[in-house]
Amino acid sequence: MRTLLLTLAGAGLTGLVAAQSTVSQLRVENLTNPLGIGTPQPRLSWQLTSPTRNTKQTAYEIRVSPAEASLAKGAAWQSGRVASDSSVHVGYKGAPLTSGGRYQWQVRVWDQTGKPSAWSGPGTFQVGLLSPADWTARWIGPNPADTAGQPSPLLRKAFTAKKAIRSATAFITAHGMYEAQINGQRVGNAYLTPGWTSYNKRLQYQTYDVTNLLRSGQNAVGVMLGSGWYRGNLAWSNARNHYGSDIALLFQLLITYTDGSTDTVISDGSWQSSTGAVRHSEVYHGELVDARMDKPNWATAGYSASDWHPVVVADYPKNHLVTTVNEPVRKHETFTMPKLIRTPKGEQVLDFGQNLVGWVMLRATGKAGSQVRLTHAEVLDKAGNFYTENLRAAKCENTYVLGGTGQPELFEPHFTWQGFRYVRVEGDAQSIATIDPASFTAVSLYSDMTPTGTFTSSNALLNQLQHNIQWGQRGNFLDVPTDCPQRDERLGWTGDAQAFSRTAAFNFGVNAFFSKWLRDVAADQLPNGSVPFVVPNVLGAGASGSAGWADVATITPWDMYLAYGDRQLLATQYPSMKAWVDYMTKQSKTDENGRPLWNSGFHFGDWLFYRPFDDNDGRSAVTDKYLIAQCFFAHSTQLLVKTAQVLGKTDDVKTYQALLDRVKAAFRQEYVTPSGRLLSNTQTAHVLALQFDMLPESQRAATAQRLVDNIKSYGNHLTTGFLGTPYLCHVLSRFGHDSVAYDLLLQETYPSWLYPVKMGATTIWERWDGIKPDSTFQTPGMNSYNHYAYGAIGDWMYRVAAGLDTDEQQVGYRQLRIRPHLDPRLTQAEATLQTPYGQAKSGWTTTNGNVVMNVEVPANTTALVSIPAKSAAQIRENGQALSVPVRNTAAGYVTVEVGSGTYRFDVSK
């Protein structure tokens, strides 16, 4: 018998005098100091920190004032002391805030002893333009009008700021993409703006504080436009102009002077247009930048634009303009000094060591007209040559033509990006005769999500898997959750997003990211309730309604609610959720007993499931697509019932609970034999039937054993695709088969999660065998090496292996559930998470037969901690008998309830 040691110790030991709590991490509508929020009555959040255990908020006080006023004396709204423990999504209840107004705010709290904290440091925010009537700017475009493929237009205007400036705010959007300058300085640090939405229904604008860019007297604003998603090549068959063939700008600058007076600078007929260095730019195909065509200082007041053309004013709508609710795309990690490779074909290739998404910045000196062409790829082939066949039609190349200034010239793209690890350098012999790797810097681009979660273990391959999961999310969360970032696709596939959304919410803060994208899911949802394959939908109305893809309408809102406790997101998405369930109901055939069976229409099924290299024995793991559809029909209906309960829609609870019962009855009638066997004897069929409770309780254990038997028949390998994989290990652990779940997690041969790691992957692959054991490739028609869906195993690693989870009854980690699942093949595993309340942690270590368990619980929360022990008498807290309340002892765990603090337990047999 081994000894199990768990020690409990940490900050805020019992008996210490209570220390004063502090308040920090102020957020408005889930963002820190946001500009351009889209509501006059925002939700406010904050975090408490305290060295004292069991710290809870019992009351709060908020004060909000205009930015120029005193918070203490000039508050526009002061809540007074409010008896409440709420510190997340607390509604502002003052008079509606004004469109474009700037505000600051503070909060203080009282703890469980009645002691108040100091006031927090001030947070700031600005309201956006809340009504179409607030826009006085006009839509303008280049003259002469252009088409996709032509040089990027430059638009400019000189203006005068008449007095001393107190503040200035720019509101900008475009048909296409834009980059703005004021007085030659870039406006903001966001890229690929205005982002990608369902443009004809929802077009985002961005809000910028440009006070520091302006000066009293003469000024100039300049904006460069690119085709982007709006009219550029998207999807296949060279499809273009999905939202329009024009390119246009809407710009509004509000200047507030120190005397309180204001001026507005708007886009209108007084602007001028020309073209510059960017001669061509496409999302898929890259960019051509010719420095000889540059117009130095074109966005400064002293520039002469006498040869520029007047712009064209257009009457495009403004009633679909919406503020940006999510974090923009920004630059992040940089990779310098790549390895220089001379391939067997003689090509010069740079290896940046990481499959990333972004672009390469080049610093070069040479004669005017000298060219350097950079082509991007994810992998080298078996012989070590540059490989681009899997990019399909996407050229993925940027070409830079030197201006010949005699000084180092810096080149980078503006309206495109690439997914790559390797870059081939070509061009004029003079330009590439001697390549200095120090001249090339790769920079990653992705939505500016806050990193929130970590996972580490004693297994180096698992740690690399976690690295790959996070880098797959970085590269594919580029304003929309794309399937892949490199080939001629890069679309917001709904099936990938729903499979990964719970994992995504651990690694990064994605509340705002998904809040934005889910609104486009609802906007592009068909009138009959069907949900497109991709959102924004550029594939057409016929590309919709696939089970497991369209269920993103229900699954991802619920995942966000569990992770962040965002009830408003649920309320916003509820009509979309309900419409999807109603669509499935209408598509179903109902028998004489009222049991609806959804066995019609196109479905992707368990996409990219296991197919052996030699299928002569018929071992392909084919799961009936309609069996899958019925399972997701039930799952979405169940989530709709839960959402209706949260929102207090009691009539819907009754209606859809009755529907759920009938859907499951239809499943059992059609797909389950009297003895309990499933029509499809595959891992995915068993997983979905168990995960979604499709079977009677009496049949579930036997079905779980059949799943185990199936796994063992494949030599402890998985065979699941996109729809079965996210739930596979969860189902095994739920039914007491942790060791089999670990068998799959730690499997190193194909098919498995660690096989790509062993093959050198730095992101998640689209296929289990994207590179085969003999180093040849899967079919190039669909073989991405940065495709995050299979990274959904991360959710099991964090919530089950490490054991850090939230209680579904107190969502958003208001109450933690900590229950690690240990395995002798690991000696350590730990997960940390920045929850809406602060950092939480669950970790365990085994040494010489002993186990140490570490727990951190943030202030204003509680946790149910399940300790692997047979009785409470075995557990010690700093050498003392366990003093925290024991909730139950069952299944090899003692569950205790604790408040905030850090803990480390000792349990001995």
From TrEMBL:
Gene3D superfamilies: 1.50.10.10, Galactose-binding domain-like (2.60.120.260), Immunoglobulins (2.60.40.10), Maltose phosphorylase, domain 3 (2.60.420.10). Residues 452-799 form the Alpha-L-rhamnosidase six-hairpin glycosidase domain. Pfam families: Bac_rhamnosid, Bac_rhamnosid6H, Bac_rhamnosid_C, Bac_rhamnosid_N, Ig_Rha78A_N. One of its GO terms (molecular function) is alpha-L-rhamnosidase activity. Keywords: Glycosidase, Hydrolase, Signal. Its EC number is 3.2.1.40. Residues 342-444 form the Alpha-L-rhamnosidase concanavalin-like domain. Residues 1-19 form the signal peptide. Residues 808-879 form the Alpha-L-rhamnosidase C-terminal domain. GO terms for biological process: carbohydrate metabolic process. The keyword RNA-binding does not apply. Residues 163-333 form the Bacterial alpha-L-rhamnosidase N-terminal domain. It catalyses: Hydrolysis of terminal non-reducing alpha-L-rhamnose residues in alpha-L-rhamnosides. This is alpha-L-rhamnosidase. The lineage of its organism: Bacteria, Pseudomonadati, Bacteroidota, Cytophagia, Cytophagales.
